[in-house]
User: Which sequence fits this backbone?
């Protein structure tokens, strides 16, 4: 059995495209995970993506995770709500001053509180100033990402409100699969 999945690719071509969201109420901080940790990267990936069918990295080995998090210029920015990880943005440096926001999202318990818009704004700004933290890297000329019809219902609206514009749409058939979840019953309250 298969399902139809629409994937949208969006971009910003100037830092002036970014339309930041207001900071949420409360004690939300965004911090770069400066020590590359495959365990932490995998935790964030499964905790954020488990209910929206993020599966492409589930089969990766420890060595493959390590390669991802140790790439020069790769960064993970984590939102913390009163000391608890709430979500993250993963930046992937590419050739010619391009930065991809590879993964972005919130752990289910933190959605709907204004953290996502703030985290996306902050992560996008860090994509634009990535070269400032990585000597020898070309200044960022383009920031892009993709989202799909399996992602959270507010994902596309958040990207658009932050100033991302659509540049490509693709429709594919993919095998039907259940959302893996971080573990059964997670997120239910």
Assistant:
């Amino acid at each position: 059995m298969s399902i139809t999945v629409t994937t949208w690719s969006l971009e910003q071509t100037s830092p002036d495209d970014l339309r930041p969201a207001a900071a949420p109420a409360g004690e939300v901080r965004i911090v770069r995970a400066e020590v590359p940790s495959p365990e932490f990267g995998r935790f964030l990936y499964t905790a954020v993506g488990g209910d929206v069918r993020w599966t492409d990295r589930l089969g990766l080995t420890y060595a493959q995770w390590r390669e991802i998090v140790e790439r020069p210029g790769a960064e993970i920015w984590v939102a913390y709500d009163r000391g608890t990880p709430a979500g993250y943005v993963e930046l992937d440096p590419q050739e010619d001053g391009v930065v991809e926001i590879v993964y972005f999202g919130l752990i289910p318990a933190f959605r709907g509180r204004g953290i996502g818009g703030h985290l996306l704004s902050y992560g996008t700004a860090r994509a634009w100033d990535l070269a400032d933290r990585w000597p020898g890297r070309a200044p960022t000329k383009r920031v892009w990402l993709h989202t799909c019809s399996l992602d959270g219902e507010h994902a596309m609206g958040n990207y658009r409100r932050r100033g991302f514009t659509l540049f490509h749409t693709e429709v594919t058939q993919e095998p039907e699969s259940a959302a893996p979840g971080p573990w059964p019953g997670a997120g239910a309250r």
